[in-house]
């Protein structure tokens, strides 16, 4: 009944409505209270530009939107919208400034105590990401990131430290943000200092193995500390369509899909799938697997699967097709779809497709932990003060959430939905402020100017009504 006015969106009681951010894109305070440098502090221009030796003044992430000092104000705004859950990340280098110390930084731990206090005050459930694209810089420089097996132990120590500290207050945890992105952005995702073009396949896939073992170890630690904790993996969700009906294009899609799905297959099923082992063999890669690694993967699988969803892509066996602009996951543009200002194809139905695909494949509860529209918003004077008339964002989110409701009607178990960048933040992919996702406008420009004042956009009121109605205010288009 997709597109039919007969369809009435329904969400289950207790559906977790909320929003999501990452420490490196909102906190700022990069050198405050004992925090060490992370890779983000020397990646001023986004995910593809060369890194610098040390932080530079043009890196907007150094101050970001100053959530570090304004978290109470921002969480109060989330509560005003009615958030049931707020996804945020802990900055690893705030807890272990270098990443390889034996003792944590108490001032860093105390900051997240205060954030959790504020969330509890407003009745908002926390969803914590342990590692969200912000590996401590020292681990990248001294160890080449996750290519070095010693990072497993460093990560285990970090995970145990924060889960012991917050595990009685935080029920939902994610181990690595978009872990499958390491294939495409090794420094951003895996803290791998070796430039991508010089990175040997053996080192890349060894790093993947180390991350997967670490993720399973964190799951074990969490369940040991508090059996009620729910741990999820987090991947980029992107449906891949054949550009043509040519079977070679369909096969190209299958192979591209496999590359993405392998990470969740391991997290959920606890073992490397055959197609992944074939990939390793064809690349001449033999993994160094320590005793106990495979048992760790098998015995400590995740409780749920979470993912980001922004776009779909097409694939083709033809070599001449061009890649979609700004798309970390490769693929080619779909000629039937419109695109955002940054070249990401807008495909609400793709969200229903991937929810069904993941549910059919794994049968685990699913959580949409990132989705939204990055756009250039214009601040105008409204009857109640400065605002943004972001009807385009409302339409985008409405159409995607209708498809979430369709998937739920299909029988898919969906835990919740946290919109990405619920307050404007520095973009990870472009390091701009002008690529805005939020319901809350933050007065800061790409050049760093601005008061950092917060203003409610039109979408703020829309999302507030949507949450209050548990999705009943969604508009289903006819036709």
How would you sum up this structure in a few lines?
The chain has 479 residues and is α/β, with parallel strands linked by helices.
Which helices and strands appear, and what pairs or packs with what?
Layout: E1 16-20, H1 23-26, H2 67-81, E2 85-89, H3 92-95, H4 106-121, E3 125-131, H5 137-143, H6 150-166, E4 172-176, H7 186-190, H8 201-225, E5 230-237, E6 240-242, H9 247-269, H10 274-282, H11 293-299, E7 304-309, E8 313-315, H12 348-362, E9 366-370, E10 380-382, E11 385-387, H13 391-409, E12 414-420, E13 440-442, E14 454-456, H14 458-468
Parallel strand pairs: 1-2, 1-12, 2-3, 3-4, 4-5, 5-7, 6-8, 7-9, 9-12
Antiparallel strand pairs: 10-11, 13-14
């Amino acid at each position: 009944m997709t597109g039919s006015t007969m369809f009435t969106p329904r969400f289950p009681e207790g559906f977790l409505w909320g929003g999501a951010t990452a420490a490196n894109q909102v906190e700022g305070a990069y050198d405050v209270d004992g925090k060490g440098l992370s890779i983000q502090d020397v990646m001023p221009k986004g995910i593809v530009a060369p890194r610098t030796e040390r932080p530079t003044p043009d890196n907007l992430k150094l101050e970001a939107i100053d959530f570090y000092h304004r978290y109470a104000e921002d969480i109060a705004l989330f509560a005003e919208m009615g958030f049931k859950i707020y996804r945020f990340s802990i900055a690893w280098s705030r807890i272990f400034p270098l990443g390889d110390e034996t003792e944590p930084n108490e001032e860093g731990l105390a900051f997240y105590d205060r954030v959790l206090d504020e969330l509890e005050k407003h009745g908002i459930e926390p969803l914590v990401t342990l590692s969200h694209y912000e590996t401590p810089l020292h681990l990248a420089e001294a160890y080449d990131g996750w290519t070095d097996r010693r990072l497993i132990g460093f990560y285990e120590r970090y995970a145990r430290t924060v889960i012991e500290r917050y595990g009685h207050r935080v029920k939902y945890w994610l181990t690595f943000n978009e872990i499958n992105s390491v294939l495409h952005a090794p420094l951003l995702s895996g803290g791998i200092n070796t430039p991508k073009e010089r990175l040997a396949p053996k080192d890349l896939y060894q790093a993947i193995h180390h991350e997967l073992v670490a993720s399973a170890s964190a799951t074990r630690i969490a369940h040991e500390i508090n059996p009620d904790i729910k741990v999820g993996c987090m991947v980029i969700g992107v449906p891949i369509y054949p550009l043509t009906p040519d079977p070679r294009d369909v096969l190209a899609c299958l192979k591209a899909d496999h590359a993405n799905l392998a990470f969740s297959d391991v997290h959920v099923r606890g073992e490397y799938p055959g197609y992944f082992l074939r990939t390793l063999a064809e690349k001449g890669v033999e993994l160094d697997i320590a005793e106990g690694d495979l048992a760790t993967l098998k015995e400590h699988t995740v409780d749920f699967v979470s993912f980001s969803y922004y776009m779909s892509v097409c694939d083709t066996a033809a070599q001449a097709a061009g890649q979609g602009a700004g798309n970390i996951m490769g693929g080619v543009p779909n000629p039937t779809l419109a695109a955002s200002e940054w070249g990401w194809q807008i495909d609400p139905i793709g969200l229903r497709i991937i929810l069904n695909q993941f549910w059919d494949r794994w049968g685990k509860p699913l959580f949409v932990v990132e989705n939204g529209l990055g756009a250039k918003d214009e601040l105008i004077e409204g009857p109640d003060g400065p605002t943004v008339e972001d009807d385009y964002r409302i339409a985008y989110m409405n159409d995607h959430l209708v498809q979430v409701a369709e998937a739920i009607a299909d029988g898919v178990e969906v835990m919740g939905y946290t919109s990405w960048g619920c307050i404007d933040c520095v973009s990870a992919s472009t390091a701009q402020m002008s690529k805005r996702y939020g319901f809350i406008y933050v007065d800061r420009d790409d050049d760093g100017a601005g008061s950092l004042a917060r203003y409610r956009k039109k979408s703020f009121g829309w999302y507030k009504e949507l949450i209050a109605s548990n999705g009943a205010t969604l508009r289903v288009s006819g036709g």
